[in-house]
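Researcher: Here's the sequence for the chain we discussed earlier.
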Amino acid sequence: MIASFGFLALAVKHLPISIVYPVWTGIGAVGSILVGVVFFKDQIPTITWLFIALLIIGIIGIKITAGH
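Model: Thanks. This is the structure I predict for it:
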């Protein structure tokens, strides 16, 4: 968690917070889901995987379209 906040602070030095924060929270959300599935054997409905994929596409889209 400390490392995550450290990387967030580092990213804010180079990119606007309006880009950094949504990407950071999206990565955290997807990461939490994957940890639950892999380590805690959470069962995720098939339709939920579609929305997880859309979240990942959104994160990539934000990063690609964000101007440096």
